[in-house]
User: Which sequence fits this backbone?
């Protein structure tokens, strides 16, 4: 085990030296409800969601992320994640359009599931996607992006009735840049093939709308958002959902 840790540390150091520059970011997220692919994973409770992100220049980002209900009597909904993701633009030169391919591997861990036999459960989630960003106008600095993402879940360890299946999501979003503010409006439609919960009826699951802005201040970045979900399948969520979030972040060049 010690040899594996040493090898991993040497590989990370060598990789960092090769790519010359990296960024360490910390983020403090706050949400009124934690939803993932249409399902509430916090029993509709508000959560704080801290994260640490280590990004290698032209390389992957390695993240540690947590979701913890503010009501600590509901710690059964705690979640810890380790994520490795990477994103590449096909065309390196500056131009009005591009093709972005990306993906990640996400190990998720729930430390307390309320089961007497074992106090935790765990699994993997994978993503692969392709997006097509292009500038609508150079003068107004508006970019439109269309895209498709595929997600796949499966459990690790003992049987927790977590169904291994995929999710297809299609999106369109618009981004507008100002001097210190970025505004994003995104629409998404999701087709769940029965992933995670075996009671989910496969098919079109929900349509969601998201409006957010990123405000860069001298010391931190602020990202408030408002989100609404029209639920199409009651086995995903029992009703439509409105929720809000606020993220506070800080990045450091290394």
Assistant:
């Amino acid at each position: 085990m010690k040899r594996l840790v040493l090898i991993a540390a040497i590989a990370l150091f060598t990789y960092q030296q090769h790519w010359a520059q990296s960024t360490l970011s910390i983020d403090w997220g706050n949400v009124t409800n934690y939803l993932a692919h249409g399902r509430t994973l916090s029993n509709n409770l508000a959560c704080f969601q801290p994260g640490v992100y280590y990004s290698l220049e032209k390389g992957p980002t390695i993240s540690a992320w947590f979701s913890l209900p503010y009501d600590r009597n509901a710690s059964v909904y705690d979640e810890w994640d380790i994520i490795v993701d990477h994103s590449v633009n096909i065309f390196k030169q500056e131009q009005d359009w591009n093709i972005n391919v990306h993906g990640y591997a996400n190990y998720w861990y729930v430390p307390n599931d309320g089961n007497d036999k074992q106090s935790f459960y765990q699994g993997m989630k994978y993503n692969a996607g392709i997006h097509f960003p292009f500038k609508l106008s150079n003068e107004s600095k508006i970019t439109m992006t269309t895209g498709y993402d595929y997600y796949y879940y499966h459990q690790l360890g003992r049987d927790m009735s977590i169904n291994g299946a995929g999710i297809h999501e299609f999106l369109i979003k618009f981004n507008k840049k100002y001097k210190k503010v970025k505004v994003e409006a995104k629409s998404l439609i999701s087709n769940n093939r029965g992933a995670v919960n075996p009671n989910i009826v496969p098919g079109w699951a929900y349509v969601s709308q998201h409006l957010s802005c990123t405000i860069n201040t001298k010391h931190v970045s602020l990202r408030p958002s408002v989100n609404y979900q029209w639920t199409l399948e009651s086995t995903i969520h029992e009703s439509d959902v409105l929720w809000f979030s606020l993220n506070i972040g800080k990045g450091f060049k290394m």
Residues 87-253 form a domain with the Porin fold (CATH 2.40.160.40). Residues 2-19 form the longest helix (18 residues).
